[in-house]
Amino acid sequence: MFFAVFLLFSLLILRLGVVQIVYGDDFKREIERTEDITVNNPVPRGKIFDRNGKVIVDNIPLNAITFTKSQGTSQKEMLKVAEKLAKFIHKDYSKVQERDKKDYWILKNPEKAKAKITDKEWKLFEEKKLDDKDIYKLQLERITDEELNQLSKDDLEVLAIYSEFNSGYALTPQIVKNKDVSPEEFAVVSENLEKLPGVDTTTDWDRYYAFGKTLRSVLGDVSTSDEGLPKEQLDYYLSKDYNRNDRVGKSYIEMQYEDVLHGQKAKVKKITDKAGNVLKTEVISEGQRGKDLVLTIDMDLQLAVEKIIEEELWKAKSYPGTSLLDRAYVVLMDPNTGEILTMAGKRIVKDQKTGKRELQDDALGNITTSYNVGSAVKGATVLTGYKTGAIQPGTYLLDAPMKIKGTPLKKSWQTMGLIDDLYALRRSSNVYMFKIAVEIGEGRYEYDQPLPLKEEAFDTIRQSFSQFGLGVRTGIDLPNEMVGFKGVDKKPGFLLDLVIGQYDTYTNMQLAQYVSTIANSGYRIQPHIVKEIREPVMDKDELGPIIEEIEPRVLNRIDMKTEWIERVQEGFRQVMQEPKGTAVGYFGGKNYYPAGKTGTAEAFYDGPDRKKFGKEPPEVMNLSLVGYAPSDNPEIAMAVLVPWAFQGNYDHKANLKIGERVMDAYFDLKKKRQEENKNSENTVQKVENIEDVQEGQEVIRKENEHGE
Hints:
Pfam families: PBP_dimer, Transpeptidase. This protein is an alpha+beta fold.
């Protein structure tokens, strides 16, 4: 026995020696082994300014409570922390799902959950004919509504907190609460962090819109911390080093410039032991909030234009025949650079709660909806006539009603007799444009006889119109721009409708690009709403250094002679400044010397209430207006569109009323700013003069002291 004990102890000592001496260092390194994990923490987004440096979109700080799950944290440990945290804060549990309640019930009642599985099923489990998932699924199915209803409000609060804990990723802070965190909640949690492992108090941010709903549809939205990354773009963002719960731009400017606004994340290296416990945290980089955007928008002008639209829209609604009128749009654009100074739209909607009608922002309608715009396109028609040889500058044609066999009479709004191209633009002759189309289609018109035209004429005219931006994307730096709809029927009568803007549909942004192309003598400029990208200035509403300035981009030069374009420019000038011009009653005598073209289109209603009318939508009139000023040196181009303006003969001229007030507002604001700058310069000069006088007096005083 002694020998046996001695032998066993000898073997034990030998084994310990091998472990400690031979493999000791290896085991020691294994025990002390650590893992370096880099965690990216989000930073606030960049700000958005208008062209004059006014803040449009900012970040407001929010008190926030977060939870960071370590790699080894168990569900039971998280549940204990959630129960403690629930005593310090109030957590909304209205969004807790039934499945979450069942999971929580099983976690809280493990014995009762176990009892829901029969002996036979446990035996199958032991025989590996059922696995853990099968057992858990059976438990979930057998939890009754009565058992779930036993969960108290306190239980549901704990569950809501626990759900937030569980939705996070290891070593990545997860927002538990960042809305309506009271100072008391923030303070008491901060005081008890030692009792709440993984919990921290910090500062989060939320987007603040300085001008309320103005331009909101264009600015876009940012996802919440609950939403995180959009599912349809999950892989894309994860490949760019985003976390799943990161907040990103969901629409329009916020989405289009996500890479600019998102910023550089703060990088933190967390050193963990083998069990996943964090031993040390090192800051690799502090990160930087997103870069700032400076828009081309002038917010003072934007607000003024929106007010004008609101007032004139409500006034127009007081006319008979306007039951379907519910929207109006305005774009103001620099025709030489493509900068959008104003992109305004308003829509009348019914409040679901009160039943009252109210106006909501619909600036996006300028690029996402299209309509028949009427005679506003006649400038492109005349230029197409020059290009194809259908007419020459100064060509006279007879304006008299036209009758194609088997179709209704087609005519101008009044019979004008023998007129030239300038008069046709000034008085908005339809027949003059019809005869251009007939020539392009190589047809021969005879009263009440068939009018065969070549179908290729549709493509010829549309190709020419596209050079101005009609029927094609303008290229504006916003997603989801609409092209418009092209009529598919190529009967001769529809070709005549096409050249007067009553067949294909166009957006108001396309109208703005079209009239800008005429205004700047033939260059189609790409419109853009972002002017500059700038470095952020921390904690200040100031503009940092310019990183990138968006330069004007010419998309094409229209294939027309300069003298042809000047001829149409003269026609546009006569529309607004000469007797009998269709807009002279509103723009005649203006000291900014405008030019432009009015439009009225016979169309069919295609709005939100179209289902009420079945297969026969009512006929409506769309109103439009394009213009620019000054006519000899354009600095501003304008497009106004009022769809479904009226039915019957109740023309309220909302397009002209809006257009006049908008153009007046632009030049009044310009004059006001010039006077303010002049007064500011005079004030600076007076201060400098006073300083010069004071300096001179000081010199005289010193000289007197020396008796000189």
